[in-house]
Design goal:
Helix content: over 70%
Number of helices: 9
Largest sheet: none
Strand content: under 5%
Distance between the termini: 88 Å
CATH class of one domain: Mainly Alpha
Length: 201
């Protein structure tokens, strides 16, 4: 084979670029530069504003963190509190209790009767029935009452099971959450912020 018959794709591409008029190449370079500026501008702009928002959110959640120890209700009212508690429950492999409670809260808001029935079955199969994939820790009697409630599903059909799960979390997991290192860190951070604010006033 002669060297003339060998075709290199990179060489062909370079020749094609070389054949282009210099004006086209300059325009392409100019376009690339402008595109780079456009791509970087929002990134920096969003970075600073999102940092401010993130800082504000952290301040709010650290302030809220002090309120979570007042009562379990106070914790459940706070979105960041629920998130922090859920993260803690994961470490204890018991997050299904909170997930069930949240699913019941969402279930109560359902207005459509057909959706109510299908949601009720789905929640029961996931959390309540024996050997459910994410079975919550409730007694046999409560489980059977909930099963019977499904035949005429209403927004109240999980009330007893939800109440039992809530009590379990409040008496068992919640005190451990308040003693956990992660929560202690949050409260220390919030307390130091409050003290530094007072010292500046």
């Amino acid at each position: 084979r002669s060297s003339g018959s060998c075709r290199c794709p990179t060489l062909s591409m370079c020749r094609a670029w070389a054949a282009l008029p210099s004006v086209c190449l300059e325009r392409a370079k100019d376009f690339k530069t402008r595109l780079g500026i456009l791509l970087h501008k929002p990134e920096h702009g969003m970075g600073s504003s999102s940092k401010l928002q993130l800082g504000a959110k952290r301040r709010d959640s650290s302030r809220e963190a002090l309120e979570w120890r007042e009562s379990f209700d106070q914790l459940l009212k706070s979105k960041s509190g629920v998130t922090a508690f859920h993260t803690f429950l994961k470490t204890e492999f018991s997050e299904e209790n909170l997930d069930f409670w949240l699913a019941c809260e969402d279930f109560k808001k359902t207005r459509s009767k057909t959706k109510l029935a299908s949601k009720a079955n789905r929640i029961f199969e996931e959390f309540v029935q024996s050997e459910a994939p994410r079975e919550v820790n409730i007694d046999h009697e409560t489980r059977e009452i909930t099963r019977k409630n499904l035949s005429g599903a209403t927004s109240a059909c999980f009330n007893e099971a939800q109440a039992k799960t809530r009590t379990l979390m409040e008496k068992d997991s919640y005190p451990r959450f308040l003693k956990s290192a992660s929560y202690q860190d949050m409260t220390k951070h919030a307390t130091s912020r409050c003290l530094s604010k007072r010292s500046h006033t």
